[in-house]
């Protein structure tokens, strides 16, 4: 099993604190105004490239450095013949530092933002608040934001849409919904998490002169750059047993479909051998519905213990359709003790809701859990529901010293050693029954092929899962995700 390295810089996603610390170091090399001027020029260049000269421009400038960027943008626009109006949050005498310098260089008349009125067909440049905003938008400013969002005007936001929290993607009372966001050096967490993803529109990361060395960041954007070198592609020398032996613990009679979806996904992802553990009540069902997969009948915990001892298992999945009861809890505990690589999903997690200490103690770096938010709060009841998904995942891995795929509109993958990967390569079409069963099947397959550790397998599986949905479009069901795996693997291999 390999570790994470060789990550492309642009896959990094930074918090406000990480960006501020980085900027502070860069400002020791060159004056901060140098970077402000570059930022303003980069935004102007994008506007010049994508919008007509004759289209009127409105630049909204806030009280800090984001506002300073706005004044520089406005100066370039006027110098190049664009009809431009500037509305500022402060009067001229209240500006300080680089923003004051930029305002003086702009040299034209500014209007108070309170007098702002929507102008039809104008391009609005949002340079009000940057990444440092922490208070809620209210009053007159909220009214202005609402006006902008209700209009058909195109909006370009500087760094991050005003009102979006750069650390969480949450909307702070109200926020401007941008068509384009030009951000500097690296994407911010708020661009790809929560509603920030929706409000940021098309995001372009630009270079404003900062050094391009890799930053010390906790979060990465999920992309093949992170894990592709460890992906278990089939080789001509492979045979079925060299490709791993994955096991899926089958579901109750009423929920056999969940285990079938998982097993199908595991086989299509490349595992050479997939076996479903079934009972005398479900063996016939699995035999009829899924004849190509191996089955083994196990009716009690003694038989299971013997099977786990003699079988050469490379990975095992338990949870899809298994039932959340005392029997499953004891079975899961046995599997966690006897098998190195285990994927826990759904019922295999919630069956511990009255015995969380046992679950936490049996998890380790070789295990991975895949809860959705509802399941997450059942097994981590003390973690604040109001936290963002990243903080929830981080708090969880501190408790369990294991890996987690926290499923949601933006899925968070966290490692046992507190690395965070944010997956926004996805689609809302994945919000369908059975989707999670397919995902857990892909994960157990990638782990079982002995090339990826559970964390990287979680990242790769989540990306593939999302890629299938993005390429399928409307009307997706779980069976379509399974059928889409070969095409997704082909796209991945072809780059």
Question: Can you give a write-up of this model?
Answer:
There is one protein chain. This protein is 40% helix and 15% strand. It has 2 domains: 209 residues, 3-Layer(aba) Sandwich (Rossmann fold); 271 residues, 3-Layer(aba) Sandwich (UDP-N-acetylmuramoyl-L-alanine:D-glutamate ligase). The strands form 2 sheets. It has a 12-stranded mixed beta sheet, with helices on both faces. The longest helix has 19 residues. By secondary structure, it is an alpha/beta fold. α8 packs across α16. It is built from 19 helices and 19 strands.
Helix/strand structural class: alpha/beta
The low-confidence runs, each spanning 5 or more residues with pLDDT under 50, are 1-7
Note the overall shape.
Answer: elongated
Strand order of the largest sheet: 8-1-10-19-18-17-16-15-14-11-12-13
Mean pLDDT: 95
Task: Provide the β-strand percentage band.
Answer: 15-25%
* Number of distinct helices: 19
Helix fraction by DSSP (H/I, runs of at least 4): 40-55%
Major sheet size, sense and barrel closure:
12 strands, mixed
Query: How many E-type strands?
Result: 19
Predict the CATH topology of the largest domain: UDP-N-acetylmuramoyl-L-alanine:D-glutamate ligase
Gyration radius (Cα, Å) is 26 Å
């Amino acid at each position: 099993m390999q570790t994470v390295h060789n990550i492309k810089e642009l896959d990094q996603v930074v918090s406000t604190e990480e960006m501020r610390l980085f900027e502070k170091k860069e400002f020791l090399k060159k004056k901060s105004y140098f970077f402000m001027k570059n930022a303003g020029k980069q935004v102007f260049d994008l506007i010049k490239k994508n919008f007509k000269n004759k289209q009127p421009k409105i630049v909204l400038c806030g009280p800090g450095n984001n506002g300073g960027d706005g004044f520089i943008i406005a100066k370039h626009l006027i110098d190049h013949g664009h009809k431009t109006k500037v509305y500022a949050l402060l009067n001229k005498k209240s500006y300080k530092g680089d923003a004051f310098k930029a305002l003086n260089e702009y040299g034209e008349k500014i209007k108070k933002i309170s007098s702002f009125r929507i102008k039809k067909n104008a391009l609005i440049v949002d340079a009000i608040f940057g990444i440092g905003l922490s208070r809620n938008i209210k009053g007159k400013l909220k009214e202005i934001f609402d006006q902008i969002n209700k209009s058909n005007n195109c909006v370009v936001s500087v760094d991050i849409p005003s009102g979006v929290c750069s650390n969480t993607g949450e909307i702070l009372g109200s926020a401007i919904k941008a068509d384009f966001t030009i951000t500097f050096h690296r994407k911010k967490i708020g661009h790809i998490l929560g509603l920030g993803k929706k409000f940021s529109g098309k995001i372009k990361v630009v270079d404003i002169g900062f050094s391009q060395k890799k930053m010390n960041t906790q979060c990465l954007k999920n992309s093949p750059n992170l894990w592709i070198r460890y992906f278990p592609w089939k080789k001509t020398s492979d045979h079925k047993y060299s490709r791993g032996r994955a096991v899926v613990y089958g579901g109750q009679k009423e929920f056999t479909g969940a285990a079938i979806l998982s097993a199908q996904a595991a086989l299509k992802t490349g595992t050479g051998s997939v076996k479903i553990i079934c009972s005398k009540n479900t063996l016939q069902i699995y035999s009829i519905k899924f004849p190509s997969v191996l089955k083994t009948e196990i009716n009690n915990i003694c038989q299971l213990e013997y099977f786990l001892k003699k079988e050469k298992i490379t990975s095992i999945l338990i949870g899809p359709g298994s039932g959340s009861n005392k029997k499953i809890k004891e079975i899961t505990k046995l599997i966690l003790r006897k098998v190195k690589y285990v994927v826990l999903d759904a019922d295999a997690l919630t069956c511990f809701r009255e015995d969380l200490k046992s679950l936490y103690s049996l998890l380790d770096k070789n295990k991975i859990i895949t809860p959705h938010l509802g399941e997450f709060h059942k097994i981590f009841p003390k973690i604040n529901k109001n936290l963002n998904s990243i903080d929830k995942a981080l708090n969880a891995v501190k408790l369990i010293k294991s890996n987690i795929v926290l499923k949601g509109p933006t899925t968070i993958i966290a490692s046992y050693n507190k690395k965070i990967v944010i997956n926004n390569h996805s689609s809302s079409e994945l919000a369908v029954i059975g989707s999670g069963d397919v995902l857990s099947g892909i994960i157990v397959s990638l782990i079982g092929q002995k090339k990826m550790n559970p964390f990287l397998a979680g990242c790769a599986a989540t990306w593939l899962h999302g890629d299938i949905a993005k390429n399928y479009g409307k009307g997706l069901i779980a069976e379509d995700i399974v059928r889409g795996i070969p095409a997704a693997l082909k796209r991945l291999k072809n780059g």
